[in-house]
Amino acid sequence: PPGLAMLAGGEQEEDFQRFLRRVDDIANLVQGLNSADSAVKAKAIAETEKRLRDQETSKEEDSKTTVNRTVINTRASDVANAEAVNADGFLAILEKDAKERATRRKENEHLANALKEKGNDAFRKGDYVIAIQRYTEGLEKLKDKQELYTNRAQAYLKMHEYEKAIGDCEWALKCNGKYVKAYFLMGKAHLALKHYSESRQCYEKILQIDPQKESLFKDCMNEVNLEEKRMKDEERAMKEVQSGKLAALSIKELLQKLDRPDQSILYYTGGIRLLAGAVKDCTEQTLFRTNNGFSILKDNEIVRRGFCAERKNSAEVDLSVSLLFLWQAVCAGNEENQRLLLTQPDVNAQLPKLLSSGVSEIQKETLALISLYSENENGRRLLVRHQDLTKWLQILMTFVNSADARGSSAMNILSDLTQEERFKTQCRVMLSTGVLPLFAQLLTSAKLVNQATLAHCIGIMGNLCADVVIRMQMAECKECWQACLKLVDEHFDVSTPKYQECLFAVLGLMMNLLLESNVVIQYFAVDISGRCMSLLRDKDGRIVTRAIGVLSRILPASSSAVEEVVKGGVVKKIITFLKAGGQITSNYGIKTLSICTRSNRQAQEDLVKSDKRFSVLLKLLDSENEMIVGNAAFCLGQCLVVPGAATSLLNSNVVMILLKHAGGDATRTSVQENAAIALGKLCVAEPRHIFQLRKLNGLAILNSSMKYVHSI
């Protein structure tokens, strides 16, 4: 019938159009797979994989549709079957193509990696043109390899082709939007192009992606800020020259006069002095830099030879001092000039030699110049980056022998440098062979050296003990311990305020070293504890507090030391100090008592006698310091074995206090443990305390805490 024929014709057309659409879709997928755009290619791969996964389901549905249509129109069914066959054929081709592409990708990745290594080798040799060629060849094999883009960007940076470097970084970020190296290099390229805002944005992205890169971020942002400031300073200086400002013109003229060859050393010394006096502000500092003032050593052989002479005559000394004056003037508060000065090879090589020259004038001005760097974070980083500081601790420590301001300047520099972790790391190199023998010598000569400077030096060594490697080396040095003990012994003969500061510093150093445990410490334990017992009579409360601190750390190393101090009446003395209060003293004191009472019966009996009804310990149990509370509870528990000790507490609130701590939520579990043990021992030694415990409904708490009690 006509109606049926029209229906069949319409369905045939619809099937045909659907077939064409599918062909178009597949053609688009193939085109996408061939795309140079990595994003388009990735999308095409994902769509292809989806179609392959759905293929079996599609076959079943098409088969059902074909059976149903057979009833209506055989011809339409043939078209549908042809469509299904053709579509399946395309999908099969697509699947085969995907597998072939995966194989080719592996091959290309292998080739790209080989080309990358060749490029890296050329880059290391400084052949940036070849490096770029190899990276480019690698990208032809694998267009979405991010490392090839950033490596090529690095090579472009070396070639000063900054726009190309930025372009490669952008391509790398298309491959991986969180690629930190790409943002870092793009920031460098923008900085070179004076795009300060864009450079900062790149570095801010790094911090957003990885907050642990904060140190890198700070360094990068500081570099941008310095470069922007440098440019502004130079623009301002140029305007002043163009306006004919006398001060600006004089810098240029003086530098031109110094540029005259074959003059006498006195001529150059005088010119340098005049130039140093002419530099008064940032503009003059900038003009000195922009007119090649830092090349004076490189360009003038007479000046360079005089400055670098090993044994300088008086004229060479004057020249060197003049140069140091000049560099102080041009570097004060000017980080760009500070950086440039340290990049001068002769200056870098001579600084430690000038410090060791033995010429006081040269040493004084060298210290003054270095202080400009050490007093701020960026300056210290410049020193650490450009200088080999392995010998600086030893060199600067020698100034303890100086009676003048050089000693103070040297110690201030050292104190500043100890804030840098890389300086501490470099100090390890010469510590055992150079620094510790010198330090021990200074300690044994405490009566003869500048004692204020020595105290500062000892404090610096104590701070360096924060580095575990340095602390271990010092704690294992017998000569160091012997020197410390000698200084303590001499204290009894010399009681000047400056010597007191040395003693105070040495006790602090000893406390830091006693964080370690080794055979050397065990060997000196009895001697150290004996000296500390003598110091408990000192009139200076700070000395007494530190002596107790040393006792609290040395006694665990030796049972013999514990016996000796207990015989010497340490318990009674510590109880006296604890009655006076003071949290630091209380902390050290109660820890010392807990060590003594742990295994020494005489110490337990002495504490019961000295602390009537445990009034001191009960007071310490109310402290807000958990360390003090835990040790006080431990001491109390140890002393309850003494007959009558538990009975003396019957009319006190000890049960309530211990119960509060045993069932409390202290951060230190030792507080609950020690309180529970003391409470258990209390009830065993004197059962009448159980009545108070019942009144306070504390039996459940005690029972739950009994797991801590091993000795009842």
TrEMBL record:
> What is the protein name for this chain?
TTC12 protein
* GO BP field: axonemal dynein complex assembly; sperm axoneme assembly
Quote the PROSITE patterns the UniProt record gives. TPR
Question: Record's GO cellular component, any one?
Answer: centrosome
Signal sequence interval, chain numbering: none
**What are the protein's UniProt keywords?**
Repeat, TPR repeat
Instruction: Give me the TPR repeat coordinates as residue ranges.
Output: 180-213
Q: Which InterPro entries match?
A: ARM-like (IPR011989), ARM-type_fold (IPR016024), TPR-like_helical_dom_sf (IPR011990), TPR_2 (IPR013105), TPR_rpt (IPR019734), TTC12 (IPR043195)
